[in-house]
Design a protein that fits this description.
Blueprint: E1 6-11, H1 16-28, E2 32-38, H2 43-53, E3 57-60, H3 66-72, E4 77-80, H4 81-89, E5 96-99, H5 107-115, E6 119-122, H6 126-142, E7 145-148, H7 151-159, E8 168-175, H8 193-196, H9 206-214, H10 216-228, E9 236-240, E10 246-252, E11 257-261, H11 267-275, H12 289-292, H13 307-317, H14 321-337, H15 345-356, H16 365-386
Parallel strand pairs: 1-2, 1-5, 2-3, 3-4, 5-6, 6-7, 8-9
Antiparallel strand pairs: 8-10, 10-11
Length: 395
């Protein structure tokens, strides 16, 4: 890339969002220049990426590895840890921050980027779930912009261009149904991590893929959409759509419905967020409607997948409740992936943690982080309780 064009920081540069973002940037050419990368503990991959795109700064998780990385990337500023991540997000001269992080770790850098007036292309939904009010306030006060990158809220954003919240009757998020669409709770008692990670449509990181299997990811998107588009949470509906080509729909007060269709490829929403309000040719084939033949929609099974209603409950409660639920889910999914608890126990841990929390205001970062810490503590305690007990008992 030349020195011309918008300057981009990519948080989570070696994950699935990072990989796709680089593919999009290669297609866009000199229109964008990568100036910052973060990669957690994937240091070797980060170094390879940095040697190719020559950023000004990079960030890794472990401060003990800074000198080693610096020796491999002469002239590149090497940051580390949560503080380094926040510094990278607010990098001087950067125009756009692509947030491809997973989980609560993305909250502080998101706030710092928005306070610094950056445009944040947001694939990391947890900051809005945890602290939606603070995130929107940071954007308003700092002059930054928040653009959704997840395929569903990105599609919704496109459908809503030029419309007001008062014209909206309902927002429809589509869900593939994950790996276990059509399964009963009894069938899911013996689900393994390998089965949960076998998503029928998308290829994503392990945490998000498990959340898709439980429908927790879709529940978090409900909270996210209500905040992003300034509607009541009960105006956000979820429908299961097995083909995964209708990414979202908007129903207006006059009964008209606009739908966004596209191939199941994250290049589309990422590129639109980067080039908005313009569109550019994308490096993929177009959707074959005749070959597709038909579209199917159905109600989600809330008995088999109770995580969705739990997210509505947290969203209606507001305050610190969503932050606690998000924290619990991170702990529960990690416990499941390590083989400590069963698949159905993920919901049990989340339900118990949310029920044990007394919600308070989420008007400051300190309050949100305290709620996050409490949620993790309660969830870890309950993981210990359910470990070794029969999975799938009534909850």
């Amino acid at each position: 890339m030349s020195m011309a064009g918008k300057r981009v920081v990519i948080l989570g540069a070696t994950g699935s969002i990072g990989d796709t973002t680089f593919r999009v940037l290669d297609n866009l050419g000199d229109e964008f220049r990568v100036v910052g990368l973060s990669a957690g503990d994937r240091v070797e991959q980060l170094v390879r990426r940095a040697r190719a795109c020559k950023p000004e700064a990079v960030c890794i998780a472990d401060g003990a590895q800074v000198e080693g990385v610096r020796s491999q990337l002469p002239g590149v500023r090497v940051l580390s840890g949560p503080e380094g991540l926040s510094q990278l997000a607010a990098l001087d001269g950067a125009d756009v921050v692509v947030n491809g992080l997973v989980g609560a770790v993305g909250l502080r850098p998101t706030l710092e980027a928005l306070k610094a007036g950056k445009t944040v292309a947001m694939a990391n939904k947890e900051p809005l779930v945890m602290a939606g009010g603070l995130v929107l306030q940071a954007a308003a006060e700092g002059g930054g912009a928040l653009l959704p990158v997840d395929s569903e809220p990105n599609a919704m954003w496109q459908c809503l261009r030029g419309e007001s919240a008062s014209a909206v009757r309902s927002l429809f998020l589509t869900a593939s149904g994950g790996a276990f669409r059509g399964w009963t709770r009894e069938q899911m008692i013996t689900v393994t991590p390998a089965q949960a990670l076998d998503h029928p449509t998308w290829r994503m990181g392990s945490k998000i893929t498990v959340d898709c299997a439980t429908l927790m990811n879709k529940g978090f998107e409900v909270i996210e959409a209500s905040l992003l588009f300034d509607v009541d949470i009960d105006q956000v509906k979820v429908v299961v759509h097995r083909e995964s080509v209708v990414h979202s729909m908007v129903e207006f007060v006059d009964g008209a419905i606009l739908a966004h269709l596209g191939k199941t490829d994250m290049s589309l929403p990422i590129q639109y967020a980067l080039t908005h309000p313009k569109r550019r040719p994308a490096p993929m084939d177009t959707l074959d409607l005749v070959g597709l033949g038909a579209l199917h929609f159905e109600e989600p099974d809330l008995l088999a997948f109770p995580a969705l209603e739990l997210c509505y409950e947290a969203g209606r409660t507001g305050g610190t409740a969503p932050a606690v639920l998000n924290a619990a889910d991170e702990v529960a999914v990690e416990g499941f992936l390590r083989g400590e608890i069963g698949f159905l126990d993920i919901h049990e841990v989340n339900r118990h943690t949310l029920g044990a929390h007394i919600p308070g205001p989420a008007d400051s970062l300190a309050e949100v982080l305290a709620a996050d810490e409490e949620g993790r503590r309660l969830a870890r305690e309950h993981v210990t309780v359910v470990r070794g007990m029969p999975s799938g008992r009534a909850t």
